[in-house]
Amino acid sequence: MFSSCAAPDTLQGLSWLLCYLTTGKHIDFYWSFLTVLTLLAVTAPTALAFGFGGAMMARSQYLALRIIGKGYTAMVRGIPDIVFFLFFVIALDQGIEWFMHQVRCPDWTDPIRNGLEFRVCPEAKVPNNSAAQLWHSVYGFVLAVITFALVFGAFAANVLYGAMQAVPREQLETAEAYGMSHGQVFRRVLVPQMWVFALPGLSNLWMILIKATPLLFLLGVQDIVYWARELGGSKTSAYAYPHPDWRLYYFLFLMVFYLAMTKVSEVVLARVQNRLSLGQATAAGEAQRRAAV
Amino acid sequence: MKKLILTTALLALTAGASLAQTVRMGTEGAYPPYNFINDAGEVDGFERELGDKLCEMAQLTCEWVTTDWDGIIPNLQSGNYDTIIAGMSITDERDKVIDFTQNYIPPASSAYMALDAGADVKGGVIAAQTGTIQAGYVAENGATLVEFATPDETVAAVRNGEADAVFADKDYLAPILAESGGQFVWAGEEVQLGGGVGMGLRESDTELKAKFDAGITAMKADGSLNALIKKWFGDAVALF
Predict the structure, then answer these.
(1) Does the beta-carbon distance from B32 to A239 stay under 8 Å?
(2) What is the ipTM of this complex?
């Protein structure tokens, strides 16, 4: 990065360390933090949307929707995350390629499944073989987001379902007595009041999601844990910056990062909880009312 | 809306399908000097240089991809890349599921490296990388095997006292031993395993295999392969 880093063997002490910490590989490491943060930023709302959909279906008055909603939460919650991450991603990836194969290569005669091989025509590869590596990474990342959202959406659905049930029945009955339709009761009374009940469960999920990001490496995305292991491993002079086993320091750094993430989350979530309790008929809401008097 | 985004993304990802196909070279990137990720963040090492040369000879555009060793064969089969060029020894078990080119490194020795030369390599605790021929050998020969996902962790296990010795390709261990300042020594006897290192391909990819085979034959004939092996592994190793 700096011109003084051209000959790393001649460097000593602090300038060596400075050059070491700014190698291309370290820059990749720093970028991977952004990958993790982006994953969190994209996955959390997506999972919440999945959860909201699941909870709505689970409460639906139609049997078919109820079965889908409850089936989704029960199935995904019951499968160990790691199994889901290993199986579902491959299935999704191959499903997409199979679909593209049917669309783009209708004349292809060779079997797609050949023993252990999965082979679609070159035009059906997603992303295409000649696409830049960036697109392969983006594709892997999108698969990761979908998988994370599905898994965490199922848990969120259960939390939101419970929260919707926890809203006092009288509130809904009063709204109905005023002549509101089913949808109006849902939008104007149920949803605004349920968040306060959902938040403790959702904040738990958020914390678990933060800690689950190292699963990204299973999905082929080079995340911070991958880079920490790769950079921290002992290096011989085949590398420009040889060093002994430094994994301890890299993992300590990751620990600080994750602790900081959870601390910030706790502070923010406490504020949100405070805000949501305003004027609610809950213990926290009541305490706020008394304090204000 | 979501569907629309997905479709657009798929279109973007598959654009340029009519262009010449790129061959994606799959490697581990954690096994110096065979293959490793250098400080610029790029794949480097003997196999990088060899692979680039072979691609150039066969007039292919090649792109390098890294993956973890554990999933390197399944990922080849599901088409995430087209070749494995990762210091993989040719063995009968692997040959059943994928195809190999002829070897580009002659059959080489595997060796035990330990903190003291008298380490019990026959009955002690031996570290080896998961899914390697060395791990298979240890499991079959009475010693207690502890497996690790990356080669570096197998060496670290010996340093930490978790294992008595590490068993791996001698060419991988040699630079580590040389630079350990006397901490590591060879233990036990060297073992000959496998039929040399070759490039792995899907069994249905016969055309691509023929191209790489031709390249390796040419490089063996004109001596450039030997020169490349010497450059990365030193003078003391087996040549063609």
Answers:
(1) yes
(2) 0.80
Round to whole Å and give the CA distance between A247 and B236. Answer: 32
**What amino acid is encoded at B45 in this protein?**
G
Note the pTM of the prediction, 2 decimals.
0.83
Taking contacts as CB-CB distances below 8 angstroms, the residues of chain B near A128 are 13-17
**Mutant choice from A89, A100, A142, A230 vs B, greatest count of B C-beta within 10 A:** A230
Contact flag B204-A25 (C-beta cutoff 8 Å): no
CB spacing of B202 vs A117 below 8 angstroms: yes
Per-residue pLDDT of chain B in tens (240 residues, 90 and over written 9): 455 555 555 555 544 443 467 899 999 999 989 999 998 889 999 999 999 999 999 999 999 999 889 889 988 998 889 999 999 999 999 999 999 999 999 988 899 999 998 888 888 999 999 999 999 999 998 899 999 999 999 999 999 999 999 999 999 999 999 998 889 999 999 999 988 999 999 998 899 999 999 999 999 999 999 999 999 998 888 888
For domain A19-292, give the CATH superfamily: MetI-like (1.10.3720.10)
CATH number for the domain running over B109-192: 3.40.190.10
| Residue B137 neighbours by CB under 8 Å, 6+ apart | B110, B167, B191, B193
Sign of the CA dihedral with B227 first, then B230, B235, and B239 last: negative
